[in-house]
Amino acid sequence: MNLGKENETLEFKESTGELHQGIESIAAILNKHGYGELYFGVFDNGEVKGQVVNDTTIKTVADGVIRDIEPRITPTITPITHDGKDVLKVSFSGSQKPYSAFGKFLIRVGTQNRQMTRDELRRLIKNEDYSYPWEKDNSSYSLDDIDDESLEKYYQEAVNCGRLEMPVYNKEGLLTILELYSNGVLKNAAFALFGKNADIQLKLACFATNEKITFLDLNEKKGNIYTLINEGVMYILNHINWRAEINRKREEIPEIPVKAIREIVINAFAHAIYEPIPEVEINIHPGLVTIFNPGSFPDDLTPEDYINKNISSIKRNPLILDVLYRCKDVEKSGTGFKRMNEQCKKEGIKWSYEKTAYGFYFTFYRGTNVTLDVTLYPELSDEEKTIMIAIKNNNKITREELAGLIKKNTRTVQRILNGLVSSGYLIRIGKNRFGYWEVIN
User: How far apart (Å, rounded) are the C-alpha atoms in residues 365 and 148?
Assistant: First the structure.
């Protein structure tokens, strides 16, 4: 029988005569991934050789792991029989990086272990202060609790962008490849990313002014990370202004670049703290768009550091980030802020950030011409003013959305719109879904 190939979380040793090397592999794997498995009695190619397994064998392995790895871990040691041959399986995990074996700090690279450099060790310590082990802990959910539609859409995206090699979709196989499912148990990250009834929260709001006072729209969503990322991006795109450029063909261009928006929305979910349940918040104002990330930014770093210096990404949820990376939602190298800045600089969009005790606010500043002083229109009714503000805030707003704002039906909205157009307050540019409103100053 063959147990597969060694990888970054799986190690084979022919016998417990290689216990010293096995303990080094455990420490190296812990420093890279935080969990893994080691088998004694298996050749490097995965073929079962067999191993004497008795109480003394188990005690020797347990004592060695507990004694020679710092900080101390408690492994799970299981005797297993394959084709009549005994092997010893050692499962281990730990969230107190860095780990040393016999006083050495090692890191797993492919199927090899090498000693960490001083800079790597320093970065690992810094990373671990910021990272969050919750995502890799076992959950109480089963495969039936995974939303098949979300996971299959993710599979198609990951395959299409060349970051996943899996010829045929298979739920269990895909989750295993993504390291979200092991030994019949889902990790917390699996349910957070693709859970059928995940209750991660996304608060969406649109305001009449740059202050959080008068709502034009308020919505709260619950779901999994994969779905909510798309919900958040689409909400922003549906509530900001667009312009049309015609070269060879008509092109609709948003006032804030789509890639920049997506980068920051993903960042909010990828770096959130998931205990307790997080609430990502997106607020649309006439002059700005704010995105609240319920996870603190590293104390001694700012987005500018990632833009102006060659700094590796410090990951709060590396497993979640790795999954999103495979569908091209993020890059692993910590270049997200740099790409966002380049997009904004190209379009003349300014941005800022603010650390708080409970998280991190990121703000995109919209054009200076998107505010509307309704005091200039004393002759208009409150309903007409509300519609004017909403259109100035989102020139592609629908009649159905306007009806919800003024608590009237769409026929009433159409009557008000017709009146505003005939009185010279509004003009309609284009038709159907490609059309938009323009306020006449």
Answer: 38
The predicted model gives 25-33 an average pLDDT of: 92
Tell whether the torsion through CA atoms of 375, 378, 382 and 384 is positive or negative: negative
Strand, coil or helix: what is 225? helix
H/E stretch holding 100 reads strand 100-101
Q: Which domains does the chain have, with CATH numbers?
A: 10-130 (3.30.950.30), 131-370 (3.30.565.60), 374-439 (1.10.10.10)
Helices (H), 282-398: 303-308, 318-326, 336-347, 382-393
Judge contact between 390 and 371, C-beta under 8 A.
no
What tens digit of pLDDT does each residue of 270-288 get?
888 887 778 899 999 988 9
pLDDT tens per residue, range 310-324: 655 666 788 888 898
Q: What is the dihedral of CA 382, 383, 388, 389, to 10 degrees?
A: 70
d(CA 228, CA 173): 24
Cα end-to-end distance, the chain, whole Å: 78
Which segments of 195-317 does DSSP mark as H helices, in order? Answer: 225-238, 258-270, 303-308
State CA 128 to chain mean position distance: 18
